[in-house]
Amino acid sequence: MPYPTTGPATWFVTGASRGLGLELVNQLLQRGNNVVATTRSPERLIAAVGPVDTSRLLALQVNLVDEKAVATAVKAAVDRFGPIDVVVNNAGYGLLAAVEEVSDIEARDLFDVQIFGAWNVLRAALPAMRARRSGHIINISSILGLTAFPGWGAYCAAKYALEGLTGSLAGEVADLGIRVNLVEPGYLRTDFLRTHSLRLPAQITDGYDGIREMTANHLAMPGTQLGDPAKAATAIITIAETGTAPLHQILGSDSYALARARIEALTNNIETGHTLASTTDIPQIA
């Protein structure tokens, strides 16, 4: 079923107190929608929301890793506003480190938010969408869900996992009236690259001078990123309202260029390896 054409839509947005999530919440409220926003700090979110009607905002402190807490939040959303029309899994943070430097707990913490938290939201929201054969899931990935940079191994791994999860989900619910999209932004001019959203390894290892230089460059980047978070939030709303976006929706000309380069490199890899690939087939008897 299409996005509501009469009356407000109800959105459930995670990671809503900063950056893209906060911009999305503000624009949704300005348009008269109902917004259930999860955050680690409802007070910070409410203080950061612009001059809009906050009677349509339900700000909830939710630990997304806690499956019961997520289910309780989804129930609270339905109790307050009725059926959820759009879910946006946006919560996440970065981790800049060489693969060797990422500890077990650092990797698990990252996946808890990026994958298992999103999965908890999906499990809680999908049954009602499936029952009424209507709804829209928008998972916020990254261009680093399509390509990879040195020093971003853990983050890329989590985003690649989100991409695979979302692609499978899209196929599973295609006949159930539920739309699914991945949004893959490039560098947005938010505070994502500041230390409260970008973590560094507890211990660093000798020999990774390039990673240290790259880390310093990224920490100096805020304020120079190409992407406009306000325009990105508007694009996400457009994806929901029109229902015509592809499964993989790139945002930003930087993201587009990196995606094209990745496609070319992957194509070259596949063609270069074609001869060896063909040697592993079991011969077919005529």
Q: How many domains is the backbone divided into?
A: 1
Radius of gyration: 20 Å
Beta-strand percent range: 5-15%
Total number of beta strands: 9
Low-confidence stretches: none
CATH superfamily: NAD(P)-binding Rossmann-like Domain
What value does the average pLDDT take? 93
What is the string of SSEs from the N terminus onward? EHEHEHEEHEHEEHHEHH
**Judging from the principal axes of the Cα atoms, what is the shape?**
globular
CATH fold assignment: Rossmann fold
Structural class computed from helices and strand pairing: alpha/beta
Q: What is the CATH class name?
A: Alpha Beta
Distance between the termini: 49 Å
Number of helices: 9
Describe the biggest sheet? 7 strands, parallel
Give the CATH architecture.
3-Layer(aba) Sandwich
Helix content: 40-55%
Strand order of the largest sheet: 3-2-1-4-6-7-9
